[in-house]
Write a structure and sequence with these properties.
Length: 153
């Protein structure tokens, strides 16, 4: 039962991390568009950016390192293998994809090659973050199912 609790704690930690990424990358990052439309200036420091730079980017690193440390300390090598480690690394650094989008000039849709490359890489990193996050939770969930079935038999 103790190992199931450890899995559930890590899943809760990952869920909280996902909420942080969604708030910073979704809600706060997309407030920039309205702010720029109203202020007509790209030189101002937007309040949402201040929060993102000072709170959320450090939180990405803290949650990533915390996930790594907790998994290394509490799980055996059959769960904490190279795929699990790689997924933790991807889920930690993929949210930094929001950093270039803080420049409002690159947020304007165009058929320019660099804009297409930026958009493609942006959505690719979003896909990488989602799949690595789902992989981590899926592995933890399957481990819970396996341990539960072993205790019932």
């Amino acid at each position: 039962m103790d190992s199931i609790n450890k899995n559930m704690k890590l899943m809760a930690w990952l869920f909280l991390y996902a909420v942080i990424v969604l708030v910073s990358g979704g809600f706060l990052s997309h407030q920039d568009t309205a702010w720029h439309q109203m202020s007509q200036s790209y030189e101002e420091l937007i309040p949402g950016r201040t929060l993102i730079y000072s709170i959320f980017y450090p939180a990405y690193i803290i949650f990533g390192l915390g996930t790594w440390w907790y998994a290394k300390k509490n799980f055996t090598t059959d769960l904490f293998d190279k795929n699990f480690k790689f997924a933790i690394i991807l889920s930690t650094f993929a949210p930094f994809m929001f950093l270039p989008s803080q420049d409002p000039e690159v947020m304007i849709l165009s058929t320019d090659l660099w804009n297409i490359i930026f958009r493609t890489s942006y959505w690719l990193m979003m896909f990488v973050w989602i799949t690595s996050f789902l992989y981590l939770n899926g592995r933890l969930g399957l481990d819970i199912v396996n341990k539960t079935s072993k205790t019932l038999n």
